[in-house]
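S.,

As promised, the L-homoserine run. Input:
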Amino acid sequence: MHRPIGRHLPTFAPAERRSLSTRFVIHIPATTANLGSGFDCLGLALDLHNTIEVEDAPQLELFIRGEGDTTLPRTAANRVVKAMQRLCDEIGKPLPPVRLCMNNLIPLARGLGSSSAAAVGGLVAANRLHGNPLGPEQLLALAVELEGHPDNVAPALLGGMCVVNMTEGRSVAVSFAWPAQLQVVVYVPDASLSTAKARGVLPNMITRGDAVFNVGRAALWVAAIAQQRYDLIQLATQDRLHQPYRASLVRGFDAICAAAVRAGALGAFLSGAGSSMAAIVMGNADAVADAMRQTAQGAGQPGRAVVLNGSPHGVRIELA
Ligand code: HSE
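Predicted complex:
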């Protein structure tokens, strides 16, 4: 079987929890954006979650387990705390002193929405602490302002597969159900890739032909899900707007995606801005994961393959 990402993290040690009563836990899903053709406008929530336990404390305290435990700041510079502060500023209230225990399963800088998860988690935590004054649309607007990528933020908030559009400075997001029979095999390279670098290689101008190519395929993605035409996913994932330019940043990208399709995937693409690659499968996840892993290793791209489901839920709050 394929090693899940960090599923067996230890719970927080008793010493860290002593004398505190958990108030609530936030669960935020990973996301895969673009889905190939839907550059900056399609995204999908995945059943891999970061959690944030939020508890009363005399002062702000942060504990981090899992991804980023040695690198993420445990100060006000932490993305979760910045998001909490942003929401408090928005509503004109102070940030309450809390202890935040973060269990991070979403790999960082791998195109799986870790920064969206931090922004959404922080916003929802602060909103809850103040009695939920902001609704989903306001949370989406703040999350997009903080994170910049609505195609990651919307599925993290709303769950399912999302279509997002920016219009007149605001985001319009529609979420719809992802079919339970479709899974997502994600190959997570050991090597990270920053979104800024992956956007930096994109051209400012494209041809009308390339625009038409992608508009049609992104629309086809939605039609394929709506009509259960999963045979169309391979066509729907094709892209000329970002992957051809980003391929040189991800060693073995073309070969790994091609191997996934040869092994039976319905389509394969760069997950978000990379470095992960995702393949859509229906019932043959292990063969596709093996093919991606073997091809990646042959291409000098070490990493791990994980099999995920779509997450019907976006961020949710579990009350203690
Ligand atoms: N749509 C964005 C991009 C996602 O591809 O750059 C960034 O996470």
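The pocket of L-homoserine is lined by residues 33-34, 39-40, 149, 151-152, 195, 198-199, 242, 272-273 (CB under 6 Å). The first strand starts at residue 22 and ends at 33.

- D.
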